[in-house]
Design goal:
Distance between the termini: 76 Å
Oligomer: single chain
CATH topology of the largest domain: Immunoglobulin-like
Number of helices: 1
Strand content: over 45%
Low-confidence stretches: 13-23
CATH superfamily of the largest domain: Immunoglobulins
Order of helices and strands: HEEEEEEEEEEEEE
Number of domains: 2
Number of strands: 13
Length: about 160
């Protein structure tokens, strides 16, 4: 009786352990940037703005159909730090006598000094068409640096080098 119970338990373990990993098909990325002879991508930094925004996209398909809600984590080697203020808020009210909006108060958002800001979004999910999008935002002081952007998903990862010029 005891041996029979042990065999049933062991047998159910082997029966219930099946591979449930799905095959998601092919994952491709488009950096939307030119490459140099060494395979590095080249991003021109806007010298008239603090941040340069750039979209990196990808596509995940299986059997020609887009995969919905496919999760990709992103990481970059470059960060920048906020100064003491992030900006300000202008509180406005409407003056009925003048027929115009007037500024009542300006509040500065302070206390952000030293907060670290990543140069990439951290997570992307694919939409119903399998499209994946991520924004990178290097800043002007990074001109001449190389941003290493890594995409990481459940069974793989890839890193690209982007020269900021």
């Amino acid at each position: 009786m005891k041996l029979r119970l042990i065999l049933i338990i062991i047998g159910s373990l082997f029966i219930s352990c099946e591979d449930t990993k799905e095959n998601y098909g092919e994952l491709t990325f488009d950096m939307r940037l030119p490459q140099d002879n060494n395979g590095f991508y080249l991003l021109d930094i806007d010298r008239n703005k603090w941040q340069t925004l750039h979209r990196v996209s990808g596509k995940i398909e299986t059997n020609g159909q887009g995969v919905d809600n496919f999760w990709v984590s992103w990481e970059s080697n470059l960060f920048w730090y906020l100064g003491d203020t992030l900006g300000y808020i202008v509180n406005r009210g409407y003056n009925y006598n003048l027929g115009a909006y007037v500024a009542i108060d300006t509040s500065y958002m302070i206390g952000f000094n030293g907060n670290e800001v990543p140069t990439t979004n951290e997570i992307s999910y694919s939409n119903g068409d399998g499209e994946i999008n991520n924004m990178i935002a290097p800043v002007r002081s990074m001109i001449g640096d190389t941003l290493y952007l890594t995409a990481d998903w459940f069974d793989g990862y890839y890193t690209w080098g982007i020269i900021l010029k």
